[in-house]
Every structure is written in structure tokens, then in C-alpha cells.
Sequence to fold (255 residues):
Amino acid sequence: MTSIIPASSKGLGNDKNASPDNGQIANTSKISERIRARFVAGGVSFLANDNISEYIQPGELQELEVEVADRVRELLQSLLIDIHNDHNTEETAERVARMYLNEVFKGRYQKQPKITSFPNVKQLDEIYTVGPITIRSACSHHFVPIMGNCWIGIKPGTRVIGLSKFARVADWVFSRPHIQEEAVMILADEIERLCEPQGLGIIVKAEHYCMKLRGVMEPQCTMVNSVVRGVFRHDSSLKQEFFELVRQQEAMLAT
Ligand SMILES: [Zn+2]
Fold:
């Protein structure tokens, strides 16, 4: 379960220099270096909150899991934890690798869940809201949890999607390292692309564990932000209707 190649801290270029005399670089380098080479060659963005599934080939995620576990094991050793004698942390590296790649950051590595949109044959044009949708994410700065709720408001356009699909796409978008402000924008872009609404509003209220667990240690502090698109942006009465519907949904939960 360990990598053949020694850890390299400087990425692809470093590896090339390390093996100048054979043509097998692509086969002997770390899997992350081989995938990263595709990003670089294609000029592709691979920021923490980007989805990179298109550039990962079948079987590579399993290889990546082995490599990440190797790096986490080194991290634990650098933290001076005796992983060879401590039964609690013996397999922590493998667990953390699986957790990052398959759970908390799955929205980077997995393709968007299949979401079918349908023509809006009844020409529905009344505003509706969906929520609260639970969001689980991690802050890009500290990799600690962001937990909260999201409400999505739609004034339908030419296409519609099922209500449960909003929760699926939100989970996919939020399951990446994020800052909340950008997460909301990315979710709005995806929903606009999926169902082309006349109006779209999203509100996110979340607790940031980098403020609760560390730093200023403010346990009650939350962050609320919103984005409005289309007619919600230009028509203040529609925007107010969206916010009022969300208030009503919250009030229903409180009773
Ligand atoms: Zn943070």
C-alpha cells in the first residue's frame, strides 16, 4: 500500500528531472502527477472547488486513494503519532483517504449526478422554494466542516427538474473544499444550466467550524449569504416574495 516513487514536494517538473534517462515517466510517476500533467497540458483549472472528474480515467481514483493514504500516513508521522503501535490510528491514513475522495470531497472527483430536465409543458411560472437542504462542506482554508442549510427558489423557465434533484446537485457542489461565497455562485451556475429558470434565488446559512473549533472560537456565529439571478435580480417584488417564502418555510420548522 505504499508508493514506489519517493515523495516529491514539487510536482511534475521535479519528477521529470528525477528520471531523465527513460521514456517511462508516465508509468512510473505518481498518479496525481500523471493527472496533473493533463490539467497543465489542457490549461484546465483544478482549484479546490473545481470538479475534475472529466480528467480522471477509470481505475485512477483507486490509485489516487493509495497515494493519498501514503501522504496522510506521512502527515501522521510528522505529527509524531506512533501509528505502528497505536491501534486507534493504525488505519487512519486509509480512512482519511477514502473519506476525502469518496465522501467529503466527492464533488471534485465524481461526475454530476444524472439529472433529467423536462419541458415546462404547463408553462408554470409561479415561484416555488425548496428547503432546507442540508449542506456539508469543508473550508478551503482549514479543511474543517462547514455545516448548514440551503434554500433554493425558482421561477420556472422553459425546463423543469424534480424537487429532489436540487438536493442532489447541492450535495455534489458542496462536497468540495469551499468558501461559502463561491459555493453559492457555483450552485447557482449549475442550477441555471440544468433548468434555465426565469428567476433563481439561493440562500445558504452555515456554521463554520474554523470559527467554532479554532481561531476566534465563536460557537454561535453563522454566515448567511444569498444570490439572486434573472427576474429575481431585476424585480424587487419577486425577490421579496422569494425571501418571504423562505421565511415561511423556516417558521414552519420552528413550530
Ligand atoms: Zn477555515
